Amino acid sequence: MARQTATFELMLPPRDRRLPAYRWLYDALRSAILEGRLHPGARLPGTRDLAAQYGLSRGTIVSAFEQLQSEGYVDGTVGSGTYVSKVLPDDLLKTASPARPRVQGKPRYRVASYATRLPPAPDFDARRARAFRTDLPALDLFPTTLWTQVATKRLRRLSVNLLLGTEPLGYPPLREAIADYLTASRAVKCEPGQIAIVSGLPDALDLTARLLLDPGDRVCMEDPGYQGAVRSFESLGAKVHAVPLDGQGMTVPRLRDARLVYVTPAHQFPMGMTMSLARRLELLEWARTSGALIFEDDYDSEYRYSGRPIPSLQGLDAGGRVLFCGTFNKVLFPSLRLAYLVIPPELVDRFAASMAITRRHAPLLDQAVLCDFITEGHFGRHLRRMRQIYAERLAVLMESARERLSGLLELSDVEAGLQTAAWLPAGTDAEALAASAAARGVEVTPLSRHSRRTLPRPGLHLGFAAVDAREIRRGVRELAIALG
Fold this sequence. Notes:
This protein has helices at residues 21-34, 47-54, 58-70, 90-96, 113-117, 144-156, 160-164, 172-185, 201-212, 227-235, 277-290, 313-316, 348-358, 364-375, 378-404, 430-439, 469-483; strands at 74-77, 81-84, 195-198, 218-223, 239-246, 249-250, 260-263, 293-297, 322-327, 339-342, 410-411, 419-423, 445-446, 459-463. It is α/β, with parallel strands linked by helices. An 8-stranded mixed beta sheet has the order 3-10-9-8-7-4-5-6, with helices on both faces.
């Protein structure tokens, strides 16, 4: 076990004035060691530091340390510090360890109704990406050296203002850069003052739901659709109404009392189609007449490999009824935890007030580094490079599937995003297939996991962006064996 350096003050119980000072200190340190509050290998504070902290003479501290060392609790030499022994005296450990109180049954706590609606937290998958993991960019191709250079340059000119913090909606220069980017690339109509910097889509959904929905309010969702949004809305007591899809995307809801609509028009999740211009206009008209607001999730619209992109739903909106969300976590890297929400002007103050109470602001130094990465042109170059690479990887997947999976699996012809849908022959058990593929080192997600209804055909969700051509071909070979 490596020795640990302690740079913190040591918290000991109040001094017992009935005991000599060295004896009180000896007992306190011995108890801390035996109870595990000072771990084997932990470094004790220096004698001068302890003397100053507790108002004792240095000789008192030295006497306590020497007694502990003679009994085998600590070891050390002059100039190298004093450390808790890696092996404690067995006989003392057995008799001195305090017994933990026994708990009769499981403790019971009263929790809010919100807590009872929460689903279990998902396990974090830290394994290396393999075919065909979804929702993940090519992390091995991210320009980490360049990012480090940008961050280092920013830290070298660090100002007091960056140490102080910023307004709840986020770092103003980053919001300006995002507004410029969205106006040019997504035809979003916004000013920097409408943009809030959040940690990701879940943060944006939670913030929106808390401000716009009361328990029992109805939310319209695409079906199949993003189940993370479903869980977010339902955890706050909203009633989710599943709206079916057709070839143009989500059909126009029939409800007249919905408060919010969640939609992915640029690249429908998980099916992949782009909502037609006519359907977008129909949906906006429905929102205007019904009084509903629309949450537009633009999660990976940067990656379109054929055809011209259709303007954002928000850019077509003349009534201020659309909230527009995008994220850097899928475009750059997941641990960045920075995204943006474009808010209708009339709601900006309410969102800012909520963020001031619940979040204060996203990490400011990360915002400043991202701002520099965008304004210096690196972000645009990275997008262009990755768009070409992802298009090549999609082409490899489609070619390999034609060669090895013909008659067994039919890929969607939609060419956008980081993943695609694929259809299986009628009667195929997609869950059993996913388990068989996993046993062969291949990740596939049944489309049924994204739907509240029975789908007309079984299918899979396949990611292609996170792995190279060789891994894609391997995944297709193994998937063909699992299907056979």
